[in-house]
Amino acid sequence: MFDKEYDVIVVGAGHAGAEAAAAAANLGSKTLLVTMNLQTIGQMSCNPAMGGIAKGQIVREIDALGGYSGIISDKSAIQFKMLNKSKGPAMWSPRTQNDRMRFAEEWRLALERTPKVDFYQEMVSGLIIEGEKVCGVKTSLGIEIRSKSVVLTNGTFLNGLIHIGERQLGGGRAGEKAATGITEQLVDLGFESGRMKTGTPPRVDGRSLDYSKMIVQPGDEIPEKFSYTNTKALSHQRDCHMTHTSTLVHDLLREGFDRSPMFNGRIKSLGPRYCPSIEDKINRFADKDKHQLFVEPEGWDTVEVYVNGFSTSLPEDVQFKALRSVVGFENVKFFRPGYAIEYDYFPPTQLKHTLETKLINNLYFAGQINGTTGYEEAASQGLMAGINAHLKVKEESPLILNRDEAYIGVLIDDLITKGTEEPYRMFTSRAEYRTLLRQDNADIRLTPMGHKIGLASDSRLKRMEEKLKKSDAFVNFFRETSVVPEDINPILESVNSAPVKQSHKMFKSFSRPNVTMDHMRNLKSVADFIEKENIDGEVMEQTEIQVKYSGYIAKEKNNADKLQRLENIKIPENFDYRLLKSLSYEAREKLEAIRPVTISQASRISGVSPSDISVLLVFMGR
Ligand code: FAD
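A: This is the predicted complex of the input protein with flavin-adenine dinucleotide.
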């Protein structure tokens, strides 16, 4: 029934498992994907969206290395937005709204088209361990399948417990059973495990909503896409909508608090701080009289709608009554209620940078099992675990990404060095080198690495090299070509920048605030260069960023050096962290609770990022 021995067995076909299986197989490993339900490959458990702030950068990085998440997101997108476009390019973050069913279908088809992936539908209930090495898996029906390595990507399924009001039921996701056996065996082997919690909002019938009372949230006028390959940008898009809660809604929700598992002590584990439930929001931010709700279609054709911002585990009748008081939701009908889920995870400090466990050789963990939350975080770990499982089996050097090379490097380094006690999600603020880690240059940073190990195709590399060659040439053009005052002054005046008296290199004026490529290309010599060298929009964007942000990039490197030198500075005993408004909320809370004595001690606290340390240093005049 099975091959005598697989190179890699991947357990679970969520975002982590799907990427892990694809990567290992595309690199040449004989791979088996065992999952509890083959109909739910690539299932989006929560919101039907990919990317967003810092997560969009991760999707681009996965794509640049040769993973599938970007391509699948593009193929199933119903709306595209580049978030944070009004800020600097380090903050630009692509996000798609996706057709949930198509997303899962595209994943399944992509894996079916991957020759070295075998499939099997079963629950893995244990691992075959010989000495200190994993040698395969055991299923709940007692079947043993042997392999040289195993990647566990069990998501929210390990001893999953669903909460809706006073009701509790075992399950890994609504309608799916929990996975048992693995945690118990790993704990017996000496692993530490913990519990975490996450939640999801109700899904409703779009036909019962009054969209005329809500604010339309359209996609970008000129939509882009995730993948650096030749996937297509959307030619038309679906709108989302926005509405908000009110004090009446909050009062109705509060009526159910005594029956809430969040408040009556039934849920004991910590949930995602940045994705709180609606009851958590009205409790924690009691002074706020409304919270935004984004009303997101679940696909092109379905009438099912996702109510983003209304995640809840309150009793169904309370959810329903409160939601009916939201503007536009007066006649709402439920498809399914919101719920919370508690599940086992393994503190990721038990892993190496390759995501292999320190305790058992050739056993890898990726995704929510490591205490993260989010599809993108899971998918990127899956990709790295799949790559490294393959490389180890083939006795090749591992692929480890550094903090200045990729958000994926930051994610994994944070996880394994700092650990996490609450669901970890990526933010731009977690990356100290975020001016380097942009969404536009993920291919330049990572495709050569993906190609070197054999995952990114030749055509990907060629495309990236061409883009780099052209943008370097274009930057040099600006460095070397002079412009006379008569030509540049009208541009400078149009952006309220002081006119110049002498001719100078174009780079200098282009670097000034508010001067953009759109201005510069009005100059004849620039327009001629664009035409002669066949410069496209992507190269123009890359060039513009290289010219305008070269100073910031140098400053960032300098800052990193400073951080190293000033590690042992003392923090005054009664230091008031509330004075530092630019500290993240999480950092302030933790610093206040732990009160570190030195900056270096502060930097080791989970949730205090290197950029928080920069804020402290600046305040102390260093
Ligand atoms: P999953 O996507 O959970 O996939 C796990 C896979 O493993 C499944 O295919 C399952 O069938 C399979 N599996 C598990 N155990 C076994 C076994 N023993 N044998 C065989 N197969 C097995 N993320 C956010 O960013 N924001 C949110 O607000 C949010 N809310 C969520 C709410 C809910 C209710 C849930 C369930 C998840 C939520 N998430 C949220 C998390 C998001 O869904 C996950 O981060 C992401 O799906 C994790 O991917 P994964 O691959 O690690 O696991």
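The first strand starts at residue 6 and ends at 11. The mean pLDDT is 93.
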